[in-house]
């Protein structure tokens, strides 16, 4: 067995095994459409693995005037108008959760933080314990806070008692997407397009997340 085989194992074979009854919520915030696209790729990957998936956006906090003054932002809002806003019930429903957000000075956007701050009741009643979670991010610079943003999300998850399913280096696609072991992250150019090719990495991360959720769910049955 070669080094890569030892490192990655048979992850592709495991991902091809269909699972049953795993419910995934993909929760995102997106101004320019990047994290919406990451969320959709995560949805595809999880469905390929047999999971039931909801793609959900967090409520917008910015004033309408700010959105109207930014053509790209306005177009994204229009494109995603039919995506449901996340509710606390969605967290209780889910076995696994994937978050996708752009960075704001190395942290998550206020829109996502505000939603997470409303989860205290679920946390207090133990409703978030053993949820399997993972996260993705984007920034306009390769070192513009992508990793820190993901880690900021995980800090909240540790308080929940959730189980973080980071991609690590469990598949070679991680290297092709920039090599972030904490979660898939992507650099967005001035033209609004993604620089790295991260689609395969996102789908692998989603499959890994729901696979771990299946293990946890079976262990608790």
TrEMBL record:
One of its GO terms (molecular function) is NAD(P)H dehydrogenase (quinone) activity. GO terms for cellular component: membrane. Residues 24-210 form the Flavodoxin-like domain. Its EC number is 1.6.5.2. The keyword Oxidoreductase applies. PROSITE patterns: FLAVODOXIN_LIKE (PS50902). Belongs to the WrbA family. This is NAD(P)H:quinone oxidoreductase. The gene is wrbA.
